[in-house]
């Protein structure tokens, strides 16, 4: 699944799971504890339900709903929480007067990206840059700043929940031809959704 998302071992590895540990796990020569396995799934933007879906008969498993019977959100929402936070900031902004929270978030994230340029942080940075462009009415720049997301979505072979949500969240920034191309790709790749 990591390879189908275009992620290298080095991009996925961190202080909890090393390149060697991931490689041995993928080759079947070692096992991971549950906590490390769940962390690894998070690193590659995959929920547990997606993992088991792809490891079993895909058509015998029901897709998870956003909320379970107790009203708690499904695991996939954890993957998109940072994007929802940005959306909330943009929705509460009052351009051009009050866009400070969006700009402050952009500055904090830029520092985080410098400290930890993970694939997820880079996608978030592209998204927050486009969001800041939007509240400053720089629509042409928003379309340019979202290109890392477009490139990521174009490179992923096996789309999951994360990719579908990322496309939906990015729609307002994308050029029309990118929307059409990525939507067609999503329909071909996300057969479970």
Automatic annotation (TrEMBL):
Gene Ontology terms, MF aspect: DNA binding
CDD domains: HTH_XRE
Matches recorded under Gene3D superfamilies: lambda repressor-like DNA-binding domains
Residue ranges of every copy of the HTH cro/C1-type domain listed in the record: 1-51
The protein's name in its UniProt record: HTH cro/C1-type domain-containing protein
Source species: Furfurilactobacillus rossiae DSM 15814
């Amino acid at each position: 699944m990591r390879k189908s998302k275009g992620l290298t071992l080095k991009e996925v590895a961190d202080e909890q799971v090393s390149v060697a540990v991931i490689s041995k796990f993928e080759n079947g020569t070692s096992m991971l504890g549950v906590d490390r396995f769940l962390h690894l799934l998070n690193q590659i933007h995959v929920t547990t339900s997606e993992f088991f879906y792809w490891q079993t008969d895909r058509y015998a498993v029901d897709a998870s709903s956003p909320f379970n019977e107790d009203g708690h959100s499904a695991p996939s929402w954890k993957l998109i929480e940072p994007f929802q936070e940005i959306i909330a900031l943009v929705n509460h902004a009052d351009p051009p007067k009050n866009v400070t929270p969006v700009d402050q978030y952009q500055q904090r994230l830029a520092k985080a990206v410098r400290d930890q340029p993970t694939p997820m942080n880079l996608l978030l940075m592209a998204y927050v840059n486009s969001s800041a462009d939007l509240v400053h009415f720089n629509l042409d720049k928003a379309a340019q700043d979202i290109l890392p997301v477009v490139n990521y979505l174009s490179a992923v072979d096996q789309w999951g929940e994360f990719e579908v949500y990322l496309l939906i969240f990015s729609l307002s920034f994308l050029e029309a031809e990118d929307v059409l191309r990525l939507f067609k790709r999503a329909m071909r790749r996300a057969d479970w959704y």
